[in-house]
Amino acid sequence: MRAVSARRLNRKTGFSLIELLIVVAIILVIAAIAIPNLLKTKMRANETSAVASLRVIVTSQALYQTTWGRGFAPDMTSLGPPPGGGNPTASAADLIDSVLASQIKSGYSFVYSAVDMDSDGQIDAYTVNAYPVSPGQTGEKYFYVDQKGVVRYALDGPASATSEPVGSR
Predict the structure, then answer these.
(1) For the chain, how many structural domains are there in total?
(2) What value does the mean pLDDT of the chain take?
(3) Are the beta carbons of 59 and 50 closer than 8 angstroms?
(4) SS3 assignment for 19-51
(5) 24-77: per-residue pLDDT in tens?
(6) Which of 87, 88, 91 is nearest to 73 (CA)?
(7) Residue 153 zone, left/alpha/beta (φ > 0; ψ -120 to 50; rest)
(8) How far apart are CA 74 and CA 159, in angstroms?
């Protein structure tokens, strides 16, 4: 019995090269499956954030119109916070965060256009388009909203007032 115990003590313990290669191969297969799913999940999160940001802009525009009585804001920076943290004004209403006011957020670029001005110089209509910063990487969908508040999307290029509404399918 002592001879068997002595042989067990003299054996080196550890993993063989084959065992390590099998473990590395398994990890690579799992990574090959998980990474594309992770990237798709990130794109969907960016798209969801873009839709939420467009809804925030619509709500902020309604609040801007009510608060300042000047129609809609002339640009996105007018909806943003005042420089230096001062009191809100019509040119810096503090209705959206500074990141969204910079017009790039969560992999999307936001383009605001005042499209209709009345005789008093008040803006009566606007559009906002959201474009993926890197199509296919930060998002696949293009979004659009106007003063009516219906967020629309397109897959093949910029969305417009005739595009499919979000959530219609």
Answers:
(1) 1
(2) 90
(3) no
(4) HHHHHHHHHHHHHHHHHHHHHHHHHHHHHHHHH
(5) 999 999 988 888 888 899 999 999 999 999 999 999 999 999 998 889 999 999
(6) 91
(7) beta
(8) 21
**Helix or strand run (H / E) with residue 162:** none
Domain annotation covers residue 138: yes
For residue 11, being part of any structural domain is answered with: no
What domain range includes position 44? 16-165
Asked whether residue 10 is assigned to any structural domain, the reply reads no
Q: Which two tokens stand for residue 10?
A: 């003299």
The DSSP-derived string for 41-99 is: HHHHHHHHHHHHHHHHHHHHHHHHHHHH-SBB-SSSGGGSPPGGG---BTTB---S-HH
Q: Hey, what are 166's tokens?
A: 């979000």
Residue 9 has pLDDT above 60, yes or no: no
- Does pTM surpass 0.85? no
Closest CA to 137 of 157, 93, 107: 107
- Measured torsion, CA atoms of residues 50, 56, 62, 63, in degrees rounded to the nearest 10: -150
DSSP assigned state of 10: H
DSSP state of 163: S
